[in-house]
Design brief:
The complex is a heterodimer. Chain A is of the alpha/beta class. Chain A has 8 helices and 11 strands. Chain B has one domain: Immunoglobulin-like, CATH 2.60.40. Chain B contains 1 helix and 9 strands. The chains are: A alpha/beta, B alpha+beta.
């Protein structure tokens, strides 16, 4: 792990768990899904990230400071979540550190929860989830559970780094993406991605509360979405709309 | 051969002030951080975006907690729109996790500058599941 990025463990971290990532991105799908998982499964904070590469920002909860990137867990899940978008220029070192830390904990698989933006999202009632993977075996796992494969296209952001690194040196990784709004918080898409996660891992996550609180989440998440929009613009996230030109 | 339309003095002055206003807004957005809520007016700013296509400008605004019949879209000049919508219930600052000051909101409100000349009188408004969509044909 890079010395510029430290992961500090507060409690015993389970070995051999599935490592999930939920970061601010299109529609805030990952972070909304992560927040719901923490609440529904009663995950507890086991570790946090300390890095001078990150902006000088702490998150205050009940008057006490917390890192913006924290890791929650139960006995078979590790969930890395960030309340603020990761600055574009430090995505590589931050994600590399998390992946290396996951390997040191014998993570059996890494799954990023995210979205894939579509135009006219407000006209789509039945959202679809897609998967991309670091290996044919991991991809087959998603396909066998009835999740459609994102066969061609571009992926931009932390989940791209996870797939690329996992393809090089494991553990296997999947990215689950639900169709979503680009610039607006999308709790329905977060629910869809959690259903996909349930199919793959067998986790039972009730999304009824998430859907019920959808409008409230959209009001509360405006400012994080706005900051995330600025970061997505820097990382050229709009490239995910582009038609691919795969050079074989 | 291209034909250039002669502009009146008032058009030139209008254009100058519009440019100045646009520049001031851009300056404010890039350099000055401000909250997304206004305690004095009891309003919060919605998320919004503008897309310019060859034929029209499409404005979308995220208006959760609102109903269609409370949404108002008003052109306030040839190049800007004022959008507001009443929320179904009051939101207090502490509902949003802000505890260092008090206040409550029951309305979304924002101004949007349209970056190209448009026919404001021909705008078409749709509202679906809390998303407002305004289509404004471009002037040719």
């Amino acid at each position: 792990m890079s010395e510029q990025v430290r992961i500090i463990e507060k409690k015993k971290v389970p070995s051999g768990a599935t490592l999930l990532f939920g970061f601010p991105d299109v529609g805030l799908v990952g972070v909304i899904a992560a927040s719901h998982l923490i609440e529904e499964l009663g995950l507890t904070e086991v570790a946090y990230m300390d890095s001078e590469l990150l902006p000088p920002l702490i998150v205050l909860h009940e008057g006490l400071p917390h890192s913006s990137i924290r890791i929650f867990a139960d006995h078979n899940i590790l969930l890395a979540v960030s309340e603020m978008p990761i600055p574009t220029d430090v995505i590589y070192p931050i994600m590399n550190a998390l992946i290396e830390w996951g390997k040191s904990k014998n993570a059996k698989m890494m799954i990023s929860l995210s979205g894939i933006p579509i135009q006219d999202r407000q006209d789509v009632k039945e959202l679809k989830a897609f998967a991309a993977a670091s290996s044919p075996e991991a991809l087959k796992l998603a396909q066998d559970k009835g999740i459609e494969v994102l066969t061609e296209g571009y992926m931009v952001g932390p989940q791209a780094v996870v797939l690329q690194r996992a393809a090089d040196s494991g553990p296997p990784a999947l990215t689950l993406l639900s169709q979503c709004f680009f610039n607006y918080p999308d709790p329905e898409a977060a629910a869809e991605v959690l259903k996909g996660l349930g199919k793959i891992t067998g986790l039972k996550v009730d999304v009824a509360k998430l859907l019920e609180k959808g409008e409230e989440i959209r009001v509360r998440a405006r400012d994080v979405m706005k900051r995330t929009q600025q970061e997505m613009s820097k990382m050229k996230k709009g490239q995910e709309y582009d038609t691919p030109m795969y050079v074989s | 051969m291209s034909s250039r339309k002669k502009r009146s003095i008032s058009d030139i002055i209008d254009a100058y002030f519009e440019d100045l206003e646009r520049w001031a807004e851009q300056f404010e957005e890039t350099l000055m951080e401000r909250p997304s809520w206004n305690l004095k007016n009891c309003t919060i700013e919605p998320l919004r975006e503008i897309m310019v296509t060859p034929t029209e400008v499409v404005v979308t605004v995220d208006l959760p907690y609102t109903e269609k019949n409370t949404v108002e879209v008003k052109p306030v000049s040839r190049t800007s729109l004022e959008i507001s919508a009443k929320m179904k219930r009051k939101i207090r600052l502490d509902d949003l996790g802000v505890t260092h000051c008090k206040g409550e909101f029951q309305k979304f409100h924002c101004h949007m500058r349209i970056p190209v000349p448009v026919n404001m009188d021909k705008m078409d408004i749709h509202y679906k599941r809390g998303i407002l969509e305004v289509h404004i044909p471009r002037k040719r």
